[in-house]
Amino acid sequence: MGRTDRASRVIAAPPATVYGALLDRDSLEVWLPPDGMRGRVERWDPRPGGGFRMVLTYLDPADSPGKTSDATDVVDVGFAALVPPERVVQRAVFEADDPSYAGTMTMIWHLTAAGEGTEVTVTATGVPPGISQADHEAGIASSLANLASYVEAAD
């Protein structure tokens, strides 16, 4: 079955606000790239069967070589399911020559009301073996921290 990578965080914003940030192009460019990266969305179609293409650029490529080029990771993400305001299911494929980054990774963003906020749990399956579990979970946690900062400042 392969491994499952997971991270979660409680965010001080209602589920509808968090869900909106998951499906807003400008928002994704701000919060989705983990620390040490910046992102640019090249294609955007926010509906089931649609998706987006994101170019993630390492701020210091010497520290973390990219999967697509020396300084970038390019990922095509499809929206497999959108269930407002509780779940977004994505299928992500990295553009890479190295077969250890090949395959389709499924990421499920599950949002649950938690008091005045939202618990966001991200579960990834089918993670390419070239991505270490520790690094991937740290990256997801970093994106969740960015998401919290983004929506909490707007709320």
Automatic annotation (TrEMBL):
UniProt signal peptide: none
Specify the Activator of Hsp90 ATPase homologue 1/2-like C-terminal domain's residue ranges. 12-152
Q: Superkingdom of this entry's organism? A: Bacteria
What Pfam families does the entry give? Answer: AHSA1
* Protein family membership: Belongs to the AHA1 family.
Q: What is the official name of this protein in its record?
A: ATPase
- Specify the species: Streptomyces griseoluteus
